Amino acid sequence: MANHKVVCWMCGAEVKDPYVNxxxxxxxxxxxxxxxxxxxxxxxxxxxxxxIGVWRYAPFxxxxxxxxxxxxxxxxxxxxxEALGAExxxxxxxxxxxxxxxxxxxxxxxxxxxxxxxxxxxxKIVGCASTGNTSAALSAYASKAGMKCAVFLPSGKxxxxxxxxxxFFGAKVLSGGGDFDDALTLARKMSEEKKLYLLNSINxxxxxxxxxxxxxxxxxxxxxxxxxxxxxVGNAANIWAVYKACMELKEIGWIDKIPKLTGIQAxxxxxxxxAFEEGAMDFVPEGNPETVATAIRIGNPVSGKKxxxxxxxTKGYATTVTDEEIIxxxxxxxxxxxxxxxxxxxxxxxxxxxxxxxxxxDKDETVACICTGNGLKDPxxxxxxxxxxxxxxxxxxxxxxxxxxN
Length: 406
Ligand code: F0G
Fold this sequence. Notes:
Shape: globular
Helix content: 25-40%
Bound molecules: ligand F0G
Number of strands: 12
Order of helices and strands: EEHEHEHEHEHEHEHHEHEHHEHHEHH
């Protein structure tokens, strides 16, 4: 574990109370400042002595591996998606399939670090607000750590698989009515009163674990950076995590090139993309967010300002995609690559297609799309957009007739 401290990303003030989620001096978001002097003496190859996954990058993590709470997260495949690339006109397109994490989303990366830190602190009760995946991940890691867990969900609009996971792992699943932003307000109040240890991504330890997705992409490309990384943006911490990973690799001189970080939002929940279009450094919260990509159905993203910094600093981009484009991209991935991702994850591929068409992405770029969650989380959306099973008679002739149709 590297030495580190929690500081305000705006004014730099150090914050020592783990139950404080914003800077007491200026109200800014918190971040972990890592001391990378030890890792800077290593070589990238040294990392490969351990199995690929979040903990391969322990020298970049602010938690002592002795307190590790792990279900073998990370180490997900990076597919060279040639058929998809040919279809969208970007031959060097890759998909990082985060749906193959233990609970089926990238949230496991943040939770292994977040819950390990909670264990270090001696926390007995952990909690989070969630559109679904965060709650599924936290519930699993809390079980593994033997902690009590409370998850606060929006009323309705949580994909069935995610809800089932949180209930299955034994969390107290609570819904006070309202949307994600209301659920987060309640979870934060609980944390401020020290009734639970909050593990939403406003907790700076969560993005630390999520940095590992970028470390892996770089590692899997032979310690080379892609030209661009595209990812869906909801509460906006993941793009910040990826940015922070880039900055840390640059700080120790392991990379020169920083990929252009490109955030994609659903048209009905797009405060960050709108701010980017206007060249603004901050976003205007949106009421009543709506999209088929329920994971990113968020109008007031906690880390929206950090996301904008990540995008501007890397000469990246942000845009919106419609629900129709999302569903088309989801099916395209399935039909061309045999990969089943949830709608929010397909937003990155929909963004790749749109930005190539608009000429923002050049055909020669190497692009990694992060597909954040597994399609099986949300079977209802899949079934609403595919044909029904075909009734047939129990005869070879009838099946032959059906197979001969287009
Ligand atoms: N993709 C999926 C599948 C998600 O579940 C989320 C966020 C995102 C992308 C966006 O990541 O919030 O860091 O910008 N899901 C959260 C949740 C909000 O509660 O599970 P972000």
